[in-house]
Write a structure and sequence with these properties.
The protein is α+β, with helices and mostly antiparallel strands and 417 residues long. It is 31% helix and 16% strand. The chain has helices at residues 2-10, 34-46, 100-113, 140-144, 166-174, 192-205, 209-218, 250-260, 264-271, 274-278, 290-301, 314-321, 398-409, and strands at 23-25, 52-59, 62-73, 86-87, 94-95, 226-228, 286-288, 305-306, 309-310, 329-330, 337-338, 340-341, 344-346, 351-352, 355-356, 362-366, 370-375, 380-386. Strands 1, 2, 3, 4, 12, 13, 16, 17 and 18 form a 9-stranded antiparallel β-sheet that branches. It has a 3-stranded antiparallel β-sheet with strand order 5-7-6. A two-stranded antiparallel sheet has the order 8-9. β8 and β9 form a beta hairpin.
Length: 417
């Protein structure tokens, strides 16, 4: 009983002693050091805040890790997984949350290459009425890079009954009011940017971003799960997200509500709702697997090709990957130094989201311990997908150790000449 009370206080589920039957392995190539990396990933699972996780790593174009551990559904805080809990597998679809933003940016840059849009012109060029409330000068590029000054949608826009009402979404977007200087210091756009991109794509193509994603990426790359949401009949197959970790204090709760527009716990609850899972939320509900999103990043490292197919042009890849060496700036919403570039969270010469000294790394994180990134200097792609949603928790030692182990195992300038 005492242990159960402590687990509930820490926001943990009780990890089974024997996890051999809870581990799933995909198709991997042999590479030195991968067992140590997986041991660190298992430590993250054993921290008790992530009911399930997937890890996929490409190195030098080969998948050297594709594994999953834990459960996709049926795990409760303070309890051991019961007999009806659904195991996590490498092919279980998982929500990327904000890591979807990177994929949406790739999609938009691909449309620019095709001449459909120009990311450097005002949004109002494509979306009449967007100029309302002084937004006439905001460009698509500024939105992708969190410099548009419109970071948060009205809370009413997050009503799941509104998701299918494109006219209502349009009105919410048109009625956004800048809360900061347009083009000034970055302020993380949590959800607003994705809806704007979808509306623009609908105006210029007559299709939704979902339709374009399927046409340009999911179908030609043969990805089973890679979509904004899933079909209504598939929602029960998506991994369930869990509110875990220590309870946040009032100050931290207010900060995240300011960033998200609604309380953190409410976001987690909404993310498991069938309406959320079947909707189109381009900044927050791309549903795929670790291998699925890692394969797109590997395509970029391969110059835009996948199995001999041209997915992205070399010029688009070059624009996305080779971002000028801009300085770190304190994000006005997140309150931490960030370096953004063309829709990605970029690495730095010092410490970044991807470890130490990854200056050319590009990727994105998702709520709250999902990491997707690629590093050209290491010929490396990493996708870590997790289903627990802690801020403070017992994972805070294990997770940095996993990132550090990946960094150590795959040093820079290790390509074979």
């Amino acid at each position: 009983m005492r242990n159960r009370v402590l687990d509930v206080a820490a926001g943990k589920f009780r990890v089974p002693e024997d996890i051999a039957g809870l581990t799933d392995t995909g198709v991997e190539s042999t590479a030195p050091g991968t067992d140590a990396i997986w041991d660190r990933a298992v430590d993250v699972y054993r921290s008790g805040v992530h009911p399930g996780l997937q890890l996929c790593i490409y190195h030098r174009g080969n998948v050297v890790i594709e594994r999953a551990v834990g459960h996709a559904r049926g795990v409760l805080v303070g309890q051991e997984p019961g007999p009806n809990a659904l195991p996590m597998r490498v092919d279980t679809p998982v929500n990327l949350f904000s890591a979807a933003k990177a994929v949406t940016s790739i999609l938009m840059h691909n449309l620019e290459e095709e001449g459909v849009v120009d990311l450097g012109v005002p949004v109002a060029t494509y979306l009449p009425g967007f100029e309302r409330h002084g937004k006439g000068g905001i460009t698509l590029a500024q939105i992708l890079n969190h410099r548009a000054g419109i970071p948060v949608l009205q809370p009413e826009a997050l009503d799941l009954d509104v998701l299918e009402d494109i006219d209502a979404i349009r009105e919410f977007v048109l009625d956004l009011r800048p809360t900061g200087e347009v083009g000034g210091a970055p302020a993380y756009h949590t959800i607003s940017g994705g809806f704007i991109m979808d509306l623009v794509v609908r105006e210029v193509t007559g299709k939704s971003v979902r339709d374009v994603l399927i046409r340009d990426f999911k179908r030609p790359m043969g990805l089973k799960w890679f979509d904004y949401g899933v079909k209504p009949e598939q929602t029960a197959r998506v991994a369930h997200n869990a509110m875990t970790g220590f309870r946040m204090g009032p100050m931290m709760s207010r900060m995240f509500q300011r960033i998200l527009g609604i309380p953190w716990g409410e976001v987690v609850k909404l993310s498991n709702d069938p309406r959320f899972l079947a909707g189109i939320i381009p900044s927050g509900n791309l549903i795929t697997t670790a291998r699925g999103v890692a394969t797109l990043y590997q395509c970029m490292l391969d110059g835009g090709t996948y199995k001999g197919k041209r997915i992205l042009s070399p010029s688009t890849v070059d624009k996305l990957v080779n971002v000028p060496n801009t300085n770190l700036e304190v994000d006005r919403m997140l309150g931490m130094p960030m370096r953004y570039g063309n829709g990605f969270m970029m690495g730095t010469n010092s410490f970044s989201l991807y470890g130490w000294n990854h200056p050319r790394a590009f990727g994105h994180v998702g709520m709250s311990n999902t990491f997707t990134w690629a590093d050209p200097d290491r010929d490396l792609v990493v996708a870590l997908l997790t289903t627990g949603k802690p801020i403070l928790g017992t994972h805070l030692i294990a997770l940095p150790k996993l990132i550090a182990e990946i960094h150590k195992t795959f040093p820079a300038h290790s390509k074979v000449s």
